[in-house]
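In practice, a research group might receive sequence data for several interacting partners and want a quick structural hypothesis before committing to experiments. The following worked case mirrors that situation: the sequences arrive first, and a predicted assembly follows.
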Amino acid sequence: MKTYLYGIINIGASAFRMAVSEVGKGYIKEIDYLLKPLRLGVDTFSQGYISLEHVKYAAEILRGFKNKLDEYGIKYYKAVCTSGVREAGNKDFFIDYIKIHAGIDITILEPSEEVYIKYLAAKLSVAGFDNMEKAGVVFANIASGNITLSVTKGNNILYSGALPYGSLRLRQMFRHISPLKRHRAFDQYAENMVATVAGTINKKMKVKNLVGSGSSINMMLRIFKPKDKFILREDLERLYNKIRVYTKQELVDELLLRDDEAEVLVPTLCTYIHLLKYTEADRFHFSPVDFPTTLTQFYTGQLKDISYHRRMRNTTLAFGERFNINIYHARHTANFARKLFMEFNDLHSLDKAKYDILEMAALLFQVGEYIDAKRYTYNSYYIIKSINIPGISSRDIFLTACVVYSMDSISLYNESIEGNYLSPEERLIINKLSCILRLAVALDASKAGLIEDIDIIQKDNMIIINAKAIKEPFVELFTFDKVKNSFEETFGIPIDIRTTMIYD
Amino acid sequence: MDTNKKEYYIGRELSWLAFNERVLSEALDIHNPLMEKLKFTAIFSSNMDEFFMVRVAGLIEQISAGYKKTDIAGYTPEEQLVAVSKETGRLIEKQQLIFRELISELEKYNILFNPVLNDEYDEDTEDIFIDAVMSVVSPVTLDPAHPFPFIYNKRMSLIAALEKQGKEYFSLIMLPENIRRYFVIHKEGKKVIFTVEEVIKRHIQKLFRGYNVKTVNVFRVTRNTDIEMRSEEVADIILSMKDFLSRRVKGAVTRVEIEADTPAYIVEFLQKMVNFKDMDTQYIHGVIDLTFLFSLSSLMPNMQFPVHKSFSIPDLPENSEIFNRIKEKDIFFFRPYYSFSTVSKLIAIAAEDNDVLAIKMTLYRTNRDSSILASLVKAAKSGKQVSVVVELKARFDEERNIDWAKNLEDAGCIVTYGIAGLKIHAKCLLIVRREQESIKRYTHIATGNYNENTASLYTDVDLITSDDCIGRDAAQLFNYLMAYTEEQIWKALSVAPFNLRENLYKLFDNEIKQAKEGRKARIIMKMNSLIDKEMIDKMYEASNAGVRIDLIVRGICGLKAGCKGFSSNIKVRSIVGRLLEHSRIFYFENAGNPRYFISSADMMPRNLNRRVELMAEINDEDFKNALSKFLDITLKDNMKAWQLMGDTFVKIKKSDDEEAVNSQEYFMNNSLI
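A structural hypothesis for the assembly, expressed as tokens:
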């Protein structure tokens, strides 16, 4: 079997990890694993930036990791950082310093990507996850900086987000409180987190399972030594009640933990217990796969998400529903958009990922009407921009918002939208997609589904859309007429529409 | 069992002195050739020097720091020092007595040692004095302009009392480090040996013309060389080590050997000037510092042990095919019965092999012209990643290791100096190779150092394996030592100070359980030293549970053997022969499925708590059989074995109807693999 070596470096809020793996088709074998504790999160979560001392130490650690990459002659690697760097005010300096002094290129992993990758790994590694999903499952990744939560039921993501409730962050926030009372602060904070999440989910939607992952799992496994792939709530509560007032050193001595682990044990237990209370489950299942391994699987294409598209579509629509969008119109528009995108492939030469942006824009462009129908594209832009959907990068979400924003006019000459800079390539993408979206929206402008289907014909240096309608689509034709010029300006070819009545 | 009873234990220092006495006893063994007897006398002296430089120095430091904590046997540092002083005095007298007997034996072969100087040798010794001595010595006659000079560690010195015009002077001659210690005059079929101090004494008047030399006496100062490094977390460990080495030269005095006939007023003068006490003074009735006897053996090559020819591992390829051979079957051998060159060759092959990506090794002690390090340099220069974890604090090898570290760095190797607070004693080599699109690791684990010289004198065990789990653990060990990771999940190896002790206890507990359930339970452990109280208590616990324990302990042993109530099932043997026993091998009966381990660790607190050590299980049945045979023969040794009776080692005497078994000779002549 043809294999290659792949390296993953994960710069977390409390430790740096590196995995070197042999990767082949359907095969990953970890051959080396490094772990160096460095609590960047202590800096980031308490003072907002990473101290110079820690930046330098991080470079020293990563020089060692680079030596490892060189040792194996690794050509392909990915170094990602999460909240410890992501939320630091001097993250750009940190990334640049590491590149110069350790020769490592770091990518910031966005919260939505992070939760998606972890969710996917749990889905593939936790036995019975699909069944749990049918009954509703809270997937919680308790990391040092953030807790990423994903609440799914069936094929819908009911909630997803990275919440600033990570164990080290909590520890830092309440560091000035006496150890005797600190657990009460953790309790209050975790309760608030659960209430925040629960508030966004329909109360009738019961979720009955909890799946946990994250670097804390290894520590929990060493403490509880579970025989199966779950830990019971009563065991968690028993331990929590016993050790919640312990000092760090007492935890190190009694439970044989590393210093960095002892710091986060109490907030971690507290968080799990509150999540279990929310789900009313008596246990939480855990994903045995650690993050570097998951990242290796993800970036080497071994984490296959076969229901990705369906889940994204459902989740997007579920989001739209919150804003009372016309679901039928949204679906109809998305179908036209898909057809136009496919047929105009030679004209726009955009890849499949851009289609995902177009589809999301088609499904969500109406959300702004919830606030004000007149300036709906403007409102939609701000609403879409705030969405967090696992598996979709925040830039793609932003581009989706820009596509909707640009439906009103061509923004090819604007270097920014609402103060957000766009690269020339992004401007082109937005223009092409918004142009297609305008046509798609026009084809169902009456929101009555009068045009059932379209054919696209290209002849005499012109594109003709043959719309198959069940009734005369006056509004659609009027709207199409208003937007067709922008198509010619964007793609360099005129477009027009003809109607064929289906009853003919 | 009350483990607080001091009667259950033997103190470390006296136990070590007993070991050195066993070494000295080899100088009396009629089975040893004469020149080898002289070597054992020299080894005794060299060991004693180190004892005073390190152990006695430590006791003195503890006393001056007001440290009152008792040792394993319940003695305070003061009590230990008194006992040590008395015992070393006895042993030195015994050594001089033996040496005089050996001189008599030498005479039978026409070798004369420091004969009374008469006219017969006057001209010869005068030539030596003028040609080889006078020009290199610089007497310092003390006066206000010439204060008492600093006397360096282990430097042979003479003090002369001079008289001129009714006034007395002292003059000091500190012999240079590189001066020859003895001279051999070939005369009338005889070989006449004169020590340099005898030559000087005979002709000293030539150094002090105008003075009357009243007396001249030899003395030698031993100093504390166990000085702590100031900080282990300094920015530049090399600079720190150099500072440490320069301070070590000037450590406090721990012993002064002085000729017994030195006038009392001169001794008092020296005590005042050099700063030592009566307790630190050893009066020698004979020759001070017999370490030079090492080199006398060349005088009579036929009176030495016959040259030992090592076995070789059969059919071992001398090219990259060696890796396939290792994949087929691990390589396992006993040093020096098998040649250590197998390891040197493996590294040389790896250095030239195109598929080798990386070579990593620990370096504790190595030889000056190490072919292994030359191979590493070659590998680094050819673009392989070579990582060497150097233990700079390998006692008395520090300077050599600094030199090597610099050489390796210059060649492009990644050189690191381990972990602050932990000495790296594990012997491990890792070769990372890319084979058919996958990574393969080859690991060498040994009980002895990567030192091609001592490899022919020390008994050790070596394992070369392609086992994935061992390779993974070895990779993690290097990752840890090079500060790349703090991950501590060991799958195949036991590593001190993390899980080695714990894993040994588990093995002990299993034997205790077997014994309590009425099954056969047995432990055999071969090591250099046993002084860890917790480990000894575990052994007592096992003994009381009915586990039969055989210990083969070369040196320090803090355990009392065969004592009713706590160690009635424990036997302790010590093998002292021509080779230095150095291997650590552990056997556990395990209810009829014996488990064998090799390790770099002795059972001492420092090894188990403050050093990085390795223990590896041997799983190959052939190798287990070899280890079984090895331990069996070792336990049958009745020529070079001593048995601990309570707290005293007694030489085992072969009965007339018994077959003589000298285990070291047996292994030299019989292949075990």
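Before designing any experiment, note the following. Chain B has four domains: 1-108, 115-286, 321-492, 496-669. The first helix of chain B runs from residue 12 to 25.
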